[in-house]
Specification:
Elements (H helix, E strand, L loop, with lengths): L1 E3 L32 E5 L15 H14 L3 E4 L3 E2 L11 E5 L6 H13 L3 E6 L9 H7 L10 E2 L22 E3 L5 E3 L14 H16 L4 E4 L36 H13 L6 E4 L6 H5 L9 E2 L2 H4 L5 H17 L5 E3 L8 H6 L3 H17 L3 E5 L20 H5 L71 H4 L6 H14 L9 E2 L7 E6 L2 E6 L5 E4 L3 E5 L3 E4 L2 E4 L3 E6 L2
Parallel strand pairs: 2-3, 2-14, 3-6, 6-10, 10-11, 11-12, 13-14
Antiparallel strand pairs: 1-20, 4-5, 7-9, 8-9, 15-16, 16-17, 17-22, 18-21, 19-22, 20-21
Helix pairs in contact: 1-2, 4-5, 10-13
This protein binds alpha-D-glucopyranose (GLC) and calcium ion.
């Protein structure tokens, strides 16, 4: 019997990615976005250059070599624009300015240039559904100026207009309307500090065209369009007649989401993107009730990609996963667009924890297998920072550390978005683990840490001071980039190997796939040119004939004679004739 492992070729001398790799960057390919692996940087939590505990643009720039070495094609940066930070920067006060928290406009330009120098494209967020309440337009609107028409102001219901104009609820909880001094109400589908723009007003269109041009002129390769399904509201703003509307998002068309009118806006932006050289792209953050409705956002004259949240929300179950893969490929295929795959982002519980609940080891096994599945499927993949390290959700953040507005708007019931935003560990055995230079690095544990490197995420720590804006678990030392670099079987090396193989194999990335009959319940088996992928989602090992030459495996395998034993929660890649 032999034990099969994938061997990682190189153990770089600089484990945390502070020096540039010597290899020449790959030339940018045409239609690059159809199979790009795009890495989401949550700016506040990636790397802090000045020790104030908050990630920033110079910090990201210094760590770009980590991303180049990881092998991704592009970086998506979450909003770094001038903002009061009522919703992690998704409340923009000035779309053309960098918030001093994150750096300067010069820093942004240098970051874009450095990324390009390393062969990495750069996608930035654009937030068109709403501005900050501190945006000059909204301030002028509150002062009674004609800017009121750039937002949705209405009179309330009730004898004195003391009731909101309709029954719409904010995604973050509570009514979607807030009353102002003159007695009228304004619409905000998110926090009250995020008033919705009125896209019926041509000035809004003109302003966003100009904002897109501003960043395109500075070299960005595309935009992640925030709430791309939200800009147009149903005429007359009708009542919904039901509570808990946030739970209906993604399963039905609501009068404030996924209205047909949004597509004209995306068409206009596509024309604008196409007027620039170099295949600049738009990716829709759109919550649509079906793969078919989502595909409307990626018709040939609209955006290039849309996040596939059906895949993200799919449970760990082979039948359900296969159904989502088929539905996704069919829907995007019907309009000629590539499918995207994503497991985590800054708004959801990390997939390791979704798959494993309180069992870190189980979650990690599944997360590693899921990553290989996703990277083997046709299309483009989004990775969320830290998943390459096997980071779990941090579920025991102290209330006083939390920042997510949805936590405060819903009495803490839904405060789910801080636990995936904890700054990532780079090196060292004490918080902030090289995330920044701030903090004392002492007393970061609460005493429940076992000192192992299993990263259970149960110890949020109490004393990280200014080291990081959210406290990092004491158990994360073993999960840092430095700790995992060159370590056999580490999750970081698994991602590096898989991304390297993906580049070498012509059959991966864009193109087709074919299911093979499943050798056992819970097993997914598919082929692509020269390639076969086998995933066992079941709880028992499965025996089958060795399929070919092993390329990558998410867990050690046993092989004897011509028989392979594929363990539970394991995904494998094979080269086949
Ligand atoms: C998107 C963002 C989320 C933000 C919301 C409002 O869903 O991903 O973080 O809170 O839009 O802008
Ligand atoms: Ca900083």
């Amino acid at each position: 019997m032999s034990l099969l492992r994938t061997v990682n070729p190189e153990s770089p001398a600089d484990p945390v990615g502070l020096t540039e790799p010597s290899a020449e960057p790959r030339p940018f390919a045409s239609r690059w976005w159809r199979d790009a692996v795009i890495y989401q940087v949550y700016v506040r939590s990636f790397a802090d250059s000045n020790g104030d505990g908050i990630g920033d643009l110079p910090g990201i720039r210094a760590r770009l070599p980590h991303l180049a070495r990881l092998g991704v094609d592009a970086v998506w940066l979450t909003p770094f624009y001038a903002s009061p930070q009522a919703d992690g920067g998704y409340d923009v006060a000035d779309y053309r300015a960098v918030d001093p928290l994150f750096g300067t406009l010069d820093d942004a330009v240098q970051l874009i240039d450095s990324a390009h120098g390393l062969g990495l494209r750069v996608i930035v967020d654009v937030v068109p559904n709403h501005t900050s309440d501190q945006h000059e337009w909204f301030r002028a609107a509150l002062a009674g100026g004609p800017e009121r028409d750039l937002y949705h102001f209405r009179q309330g219901r009730g004898t004195d207009g003391e009731l909101p104009p309709n029954d719409w609820e904010s995604v973050f909880g509570g009514p979607a309307w807030t009353r102002v001094a003159d007695g009228s109400w304004y619409l905000h589908l998110f926090a009250p500090q995020q008033p919705d723009l009125n896209w019926e007003n041509p000035a809004v269109h003109a302003e966003f065209d100009s904002i897109l041009r501003f960043w395109l002129d500075r070299g960005v390769d595309g935009f992640r369009v925030d709430v791309a399904h939200g800009m147009v509201k149903a005429a007359g703003m009708p009542d919904i007649g039901a509570r808990e509307q946030a739970k209906m998002i993604g399963s039905q068309v609501l009068p404030f989401f996924d209205q047909d009118g949004v597509h004209a806006i995306h068409r206009g932006w596509r024309r604008l993107l196409d007027s620039y050289e170099g295949e600049r792209i738009g990716v829709a953050e759109a919550w649509a009730p079906s793969p078919e409705r989502l595909a409307l956002y990626v018709r040939p004259d609209e955006l290039h990609q849309a996040f596939n949240f059906q895949f993200l929300t799919c449970p760990w179950d082979a039948t359900a996963m296969r159904a989502v893969v088929d539905a996704s490929l069919a829907a995007t295929g019907s309009v000629g667009a590539p499918t995207t795959w994503v497991l985590s982002n800054h708004d959801v519980v990390r997939h390791l924890t979704r798959y494993g609940a309180d069992d870190y080891a189980k979650g990690l096994r599944r997360a590693r297998a899921a990553a290989l599945l996703m990277l083997a499927l046709p299309g483009s993949t989004y990775l969320y920072q830290g998943e390459e390290l096997g980071l779990p959700e941090v579920r025991d953040l102290p209330d006083e550390a939390r920042q997510d507005p949805s936590f405060f708007r819903t009495d803490g019931q839904d405060g789910l978005r801080d636990g995936c935003r904890v700054p990532i560990p780079w090196e060292g055995d004490r918080a902030p683990y090289g995330f920044g230079s701030g903090g004392t690095g002492e007393d970061t544990g609460t005493g429940t840490d076992t000192g192992t490197s299993t990263g259970t995420g149960t110890d949020a720590g109490t004393g990280s001071g200014t080291g990081s804006w959210l406290p990092q678990p004491a158990s994360w030392a073993g999960l840092s980039v430095a700790a995992q670099t060159g370590a056999e079987g580490s999750t970081l090396e698994l991602y590096r190997t898989a991304l390297a193989r993906r580049k070498e194999l012509p059959g991966l990335g864009d193109g087709g796939m074919e299911w093979r009959p499943s050798p056992a319940a819970g097993v997914l088996d598919f082929v692509r040119p020269g390639f076969r992928c086998l995933l066992n989602t079941g709880t028992e090992p499965v025996e089958l004939p060795t399929p070919g030459r092993l390329l990558v495996t998410s867990a050690d395998l046993a092989a004897e004679g011509g028989t392979l034993t594929l363990p539970a929660d394991t995904c494998t890649w094979w080269a086949i004739p």
